[in-house]
Known about the structure:
The structure holds two protein chains of two kinds. By secondary structure, chain A is α+β, with helices and mostly antiparallel strands. Chain A has four helices and eleven strands. Chain A has a five-stranded antiparallel β-sheet with strand order 4-5-10-7-8, with no helix packed on it. A four-stranded antiparallel β-sheet of chain A has the order 3-11-6-9. In chain A, strands 1-2 form a two-stranded antiparallel sheet. In chain A, strand 4 (about 75) and strand 5 (about 85-90) form a beta hairpin. The two termini of chain B are about 25 Å apart. By secondary structure, chain B is mainly beta. Chain B is built from one helix and seven strands, in the order βββββαββ. The interface of A and B includes residues 22, 33, 35, 65 and 66 of A. Strand 3 of chain A pairs antiparallel with strand 7 (about 100-115) of chain B.
Amino acid sequence: xxxxxxxxxxxxxxxxxxxxxxxxxxxxxxxxxxxxxxxxxxxxxxxxxxxxxxxxxxxxxxxxxxxxxxxxxxxxxxxxxxxxxxxxxxxxxxxxxxxxxxxxxxxxxxxxxxxxxxxxxxxxxxxxxxxxxxxxxxxxxxxxxxxxxxxxxxxxxxxxxxxxxxxxxxxxxxxxxxxxxxxxxxxxxxxxxxxxxxxxxxxxxxxxxxxxxxxxxxx
Amino acid sequence: xxxxxxxxxxxxxxxxxxxxxxxxxxxxxxxxxxxxxxxxxxxxxxxxxxxxxxxxxxxxxxxxxxxxxxxxxxxxxxxxxxxxxxxxxxxxxxxxxxxxxxxxxxxxxxxxxxx
Lengths: 219, 115
């Protein structure tokens, strides 16, 4: 009992309410592994680095998480027109501890293969991101959180959500969005959606400022 | 685990001493991905009169050692404490199986001093 009391007080000082008991050992996202290695190998400067700042993104923060998308593909609905893909993105953010402040959120779309095809007409795609409403797909005319044209050339694409989410005041619970990818202008009539079907995975990288860092910054 | 007792007698003066924290020793290896342990160190040793310059001490500590040498029972020696620490980063799984990278400040003792 004494040991577990000591353990829980140590966990609390590490900002954890209880000892995590992971169900499965998911692979470590490369971006986190690179950040960890960089900190481990960088020479210890005389001046202590600000451990309440994530230099890689130049934002305040001391906790970086990658949330896997738990959503599913939605029917494109009729008429299909230029809409290629509609997907519900669902991120369980319940892991955010009380008092953590979100300082950056980045959505990553990973595609199956790394193709450096020259951007042919069919390649230009448009991405729209809507807040998911319990009443299903976004109503027409509803303003998207994010709207981008992109050429699918790389294995993964990153989209900044920070500004959009700050208004949304991400609840500690979860984050649900609807992702729509449609054929851009000038797409080839034969295969307007070429390349959109290669979407392999989506994940959300979130940087937060823990309570201890926030208190320190106030001081 | 601290350093095994060295052949030569350890310096009695205040300085960082080796302390290795092994997460697997405390059964945390199933949720901490990396590191599996790290050198935390601690400060140990005396702050005797006259306080040598390398003991990184304050004027007050110099004064206190003088008073202590005149009146050992009345005033204790200054304490040997960390004066410079550095952070570490820990990669771990949280309860929702997300991978978390977290930076913790003041986790490694780099320098000790008399205070």
